[in-house]
From TrEMBL:
It comes from the Bacteria. The gene is menF. Its EC number is 5.4.4.2. This is isochorismate synthase. GO terms for molecular function: isochorismate synthase activity. The keyword Isomerase applies. NCBIfam families: isochor_syn. It comes from Weizmannia acidilactici. Keywords: Isomerase.
Length: 455
């Protein structure tokens, strides 16, 4: 596996690096969670997992033939450029022509690329990887992609080794993923956070902005290291109709079950999601219906939602020959919470409109940032006083054909040795009540708290 061919730099005419990729059909494959877990002993710290809400596609990535780190101010453009440079020099041994197989990039951006990093140092401003081994689960089939990078002269021997390793993983019995014992669950500055919400409300009432999303953090400590396998398994059992994701880096991982799509692109078809406005689920069907009905007609929540719809519509319209935005939201119900939801579908006009360009234009939507964007981001930096890291930011994949999907990395947390840090936020508008927003973020913490054994 050629990780970083530093010797090449010493040569006068460095040989051109080429990306080789081979795709085969896989038979007798264990379930995706078992397979992710079976890769732990060889690839712990260098794995990823992705599953979309309809479970149309599941990715399990092991190892890396290349890691791209965001170092420039415009991380979207930088990662796209570096990826294209390599993807332009590819040899693909692929009889199978399936979306999401072959060379593929997976990773996430930091929410605010202007901030210095604190507990998120390992992930920096964002990190993307081309895995050495990729399993793609689709409806009726599983594909194995192995990748390697070489100087372009000979087919790398690493390819055969990677394929053998991948095949061995298929027969490995998984380890039982168990969580260590929880020592404590701590809210961080809950009182100060409510004050910040009150401050934001004042700014909005003064007319300085229309909406701002403020997030807060919880900290959990364990008597041993938390690994993502147990959390992923719990989320998969507890959270349906969500994206499930794990992105490992060194001994840390970003894990979550997000209901929110930022953008999906298949050829020229795009899909985005307006998700904002929340209420808890009812204890029984009657209460649930009543709460859902209240949400659908609640002025404050409809307002929160409206800002997101109009922004996404305005951002996407110039790129599209067709854009369909329903007039009114419907409900999206998750296990613990229900949201106002407006799906947006469209067709982009030209090939230059890549998923990276769309993600850059959209992020952050007013579901995580605010309106106006610049003012809201400044308020977030000033009022939140924390580092969101990859929370609330685009996370997902792109294949070499330009198809891909980014979710918004919410309902998520950072697992760091014997600690877990969870993040949840809410849309603050003119008539927000700090105590109510505090409760709403409490509901949003529930899925991760439960999966982490803290509830
Ligand atoms: C910010 C979060 O969620 C966002 C805020 C919502 C709201 O305030 O109603 C709803 C859905 C999300 O877009 C989060 O879960 O952390
Ligand atoms: Mg809200």
């Amino acid at each position: 596996m050629a990780k970083n061919n530093s010797y090449i730099l010493k040569e006068k005419n460095p040989p051109v690096q080429k990306l080789y990729s081979k795709v085969v059909n896989c038979q007798a494959v264990p379930g995706p969670f078992q397979l992710f877990n079976a890769g732990a002993h060889l690839f712990y710290g260098n794995r990823f997992y992705w599953q979309d809400p309809q479970r149309e596609i599941v990715f399990i990535g092991f190892g890396d033939v290349r890691t791209f780190r965001v170092t420039e101010a415009d991380g979207f453009a930088q990662i796209e450029k570096e990826w294209n440079e390599l993807a332009g020099r590819m040899e693909i041994d692929q009889e199978i022509q399936e979306m999401g197989t072959g060379p593929l990039l997976f990773g996430g951006f930091a929410f605010d690329q202007t901030l210095g990093k604190r507990e998120w140092a390992a992930f920096g401003q964002g990190i993307f990887r081309i895995p050495q081994i990729l399993f793609t689960f689709k409806k009726d089939a599983v594909y194995l992609t192995v990748n390697a990078i070489s100087n372009g002269q000979d087919l790398p021997g690493g390819m055969r080794g990677a394929e053998e390793t991948a095949r061995r993983l298929l027969t490995k019995s998984p380890r039982d993923p168990a969580l260590p014992k929880v020592k404590y669950v701590r809210e961080i500055s809950a009182a100060k956070w409510k004050e910040s919400v009150a401050n934001a409300v004042r700014l909005i009432q003064k007319g300085e902005m229309d909406k701002v999303v403020l997030a807060r953090k919880m900290e959990m400590a364990y008597d041993g290291a938390v690994n993502p396998d147990a959390v992923l398994l719990a989320l998969s059992e507890q959270q349906h109709e969500s994206y499930l994701f794990v992105l490992e880096e060194e001994n840390e991982s970003f894990v979550g079950a997000s209901p929110e799509r930022l953008i999906r692109k298949t050829d020229r078809e795009i899909l985005s999601t307006c998700l904002a406005g929340s209420i808890k689920r009812g204890r029984d069907e009657a209460e649930d219906l009543k709460l859902g009905g209240m949400l659908l007609s609640d002025k404050k929540n409809l307002n929160e939602h409206r800002f997101v719809v109009s922004m996404i519509q305005n951002v996407l319209a110039p790129f599209c020959s067709e854009l369909i935005v329903p007039d009114a939201p419907v409900l999206m119900k998750m296990r613990d919470i229900q949201h106002l939801y407006t799906p947006v579908t469209g067709t982009v006009k030209d090939k230059e409109t890549t998923i990276f360009k769309l993600a850059k234009a959209l992020h952050p939507t007013p579901a995580l940032g605010g309106i106006p964007r610049k003012c809201a981001l400044e308020a977030i930096r000033r009022l939140e006083k924390m580092d969101r890291g990859l929370y609330g930011a685009p996370l997902g994949w792109v294949d070499y054909r330009g198809n891909g999907e980014f979710c918004v990395g919410i309902r998520s947390g950072l697992l760091k040795e014997d600690h877990a840090y969870l993040y949840a936020g809410c849309g603050v508008v003119a008539d927000s009540v700090p105590e109510e927003e505090y409760k709403e973020t409490g509901v949003k913490f529930t899925p991760m708290l439960r999966a982490l054994g803290g509830k």
